[in-house]
């Protein structure tokens, strides 16, 4: 059904799209329209390191400092976060597209191999942090809530590293850089 809305005060007319059933495909299509900041979630030590590229990292609260990240339960990242009890949230910029793709699994790299081509340091928690990240947030797991296909990880912030630049955005299947 097409909906028609008119605002005579501003002479604005808009037509909305046809409603779709609330299924996984429709939800994915809707969420692709929402731009999100790109972060690389890192966890583990040595050869047990792994990580993932996400747009689901956000602040839960600033006082106390807590972060929230949603991780797929079937990913290789969640078991490592659970085992080590830490995670690095590396907010990346336009110079990190290749790295973001590596951690998204493009190119087939897995585990510690995803860390290739970048400089890393070890945070207070033990989590790997990207040296030239726009910002990096070191967390220990405060709580993990398993729901459906994902785990909502609440991280207690231990330390923050501020770098330079603007964060990389992801929308409609593509990266976008702010200038």
Can you describe what's shown?
Strand 13 and strand 14 form a beta hairpin. This protein is globular. Helices cover 13% and strands 45% of the residues. The protein has 179 residues and is mostly beta strands.
Shape: globular
CATH topology heading = Pnp Oxidase, Chain A
Counted by DSSP, the helix tally is 3
**Strands across the major sheet, in which order?**
5-4-8-11-12-7-6
State Rg.
19 Å
**CATH class placement:** Mainly Beta
- Helix-strand pattern, N to C? EEHEEEEEHEHEEEEEE
The CATH H-level homologous superfamily: Electron Transport, Fmn-binding Protein, Chain A
CATH architecture: Roll
Helix share of residues?
Answer: 10-25%
Beta-strand content bin: over 45%
Number of domains: 1
Uncertain parts: 1-8
Q: How far is the first residue's CA from the last residue's CA?
A: 40 Å
Mean pLDDT, as a whole number? 91
How many β-strand runs?
14
Largest sheet geometry: 7 strands, antiparallel
The SS-based structural class is mainly beta
